[in-house]
Model the fold of this input.
Amino acid sequence: MKKIEVLENLVDALKILPGVGPKSALRLTYFLLQRNRNGAKNLSDQISNALEQLMHCELCNNFSEEPKCSICLSDKRDVSTICIVEMPTDLLMLEETHSYDGLYFILMGRLSPLDGIGPNDIHLSKLINRIKNSNIKELILATNFTVEGNATAQYIKELFKDVDIKTSRIARGLPMGGEIEYVDSGTLAQAIVERKAI
Ligand SMILES: [Zn+2]
Done:
């Protein structure tokens, strides 16, 4: 059978999703086109809308429809504490634990010299500015318990060692190599409550 280019392009596009290989991508493509064309149209519209309308909060990098996100603007948050995470999904997971009511800062990555990701690639100057212009008293390092996540936490701790601010690391309830995104919310809640000064 001659290849149909538009079909192939859609299959290729779906392969960017985690866990979707060539076979599942092909199956999803056929599902969307032959069984759920309305759903497919809606999916396509929602992806376009999200890409057009969402930006990164200018204070914390979280996804937001406004320049500043609802967490940064909320008057119910404890503004003396800031929790540093790698990605927006980590923030989401921590929010779901309902055990933390401070602010956040999302690095949008982690230090990874092998992948060419250095301090300039994880918004550290933005973090320094944020802390300089605030009443933050405690910095909670909630990067993943991976080699890169630990190195990133250590680097940030060093960065603020001469500043009058307490730094803590979420507790080791998390498995070594553990990524916050995949930890259940009970364990994560415990990890943040039992955080240790470093
Ligand atoms: Zn924000």
Remarks:
- The mean pLDDT is 91.
- The domain at 5-53 is CATH 1.10.8.420 (Helicase, Ruva Protein; domain 3).
